[in-house]
């Protein structure tokens, strides 16, 4: 697969032959031919972008689509709030544990060789979870969700490394912004889809997983052409040695980036869990599709911002630093204000939307810096470590927010605003990208 940067070669020919009536090379026809070739490339790239975007969207449906049905699951299966939160947490925890292993395998055997079987297992485990719900077996549902989490480790995290393999320059940052936007779009539409499917039966979402996985599978197989490996895979000892060298050299800002990305998703999923439970209680009594639409409002802010951010940052390190810090300031201030306004639903949702916009400024910048920090041979592991912490952030969100909700609503927002402020300080002092990243 060619890299995104198109290189124009200035080629001249010398000949003693009189070309007479032959048409000159270049001219209008040459321009037309070049234009057609560029159009063809552009169209092919659009389909490739779409195929890549389906992978993180499928992953995100795995959690966000289930958020609206957690209260129904508690009621129909006779489980506690904490047990229902484990349906989200165990999925993310299993993914987080397996991601580093999957990252190594993707560096060794190729990205598509990991993504394709992962999508198949992901969809099959969704069917198993659905039957577990029908049988009223919480153990089967939880086991199936853990299997889904293991398979999820081979989807979006590997897709991020694949983007780094396929593209460079501004197109890489745009593609990474698109994957983050796709991730966010999945978060926007999935509560609505989950609520609509729950109108049929509360566990219908589980049986929707294989449908979405099948669509993504077709796109990955037919629309993405993975570049050939230019050298033999490294042995495990040398591979780990290279990873440790990278962490020693760039660990200060890489680890800070990992933490910042994890915190952004911890807050996002924790707030979704909080909002989903609060909306169903007095005085709101909001359920079903209406609740799904409300849950989608903050996420829409994140999606739009992620796509725009990915499109404009290109490899501009100075702009990335500005946007990351502005994003964290927006998160810190808006979350601090929710301490006083969480009982006013309209203001509360507005503040959560501002926080989500801040997350949308932060994540595409982190993604671009991390994928550009390493060579192709180690990219899978580094992006996997990053995604591992992102998943663990998602896993920690619902149970910790549930625990804090039992103590006090104010404790929830005091905690996350303080965490955002600490992260702002770390990012401001420790992440100072070069003028041009990558």
Automatic annotation (TrEMBL):
Start-end of Basic and acidic residues biased regions: 20-39
Subcellular location: Cell membrane
Disordered, as annotated region: 18-39
Pfam families, per database record: MFS_1
Segments traversing the membrane: 46-66, 86-106, 113-135, 200-224, 253-273, 293-310, 322-342, 348-366, 387-405, 411-431
Keyword set, alphabetical order: Cell membrane, Membrane, Transmembrane, Transmembrane helix, Transport
One annotated Gene Ontology cellular component of this protein: plasma membrane
Gene3D superfamilies: MFS general substrate transporter like domains
Domain Major facilitator superfamily (MFS) profile: 48-435
A molecular function (GO) term: transmembrane transporter activity
Membrane topology qualifier: Multi-pass membrane protein
Chief location category: membrane
PANTHER family: CHLORAMPHENICOL EFFLUX PUMP RV0191, PURINE EFFLUX PUMP PBUE
Similarity comment: family membership: Belongs to the major facilitator superfamily. TCR/Tet family.
UniProt name for this protein: MFS transporter
Organism: Paenibacillus flagellatus
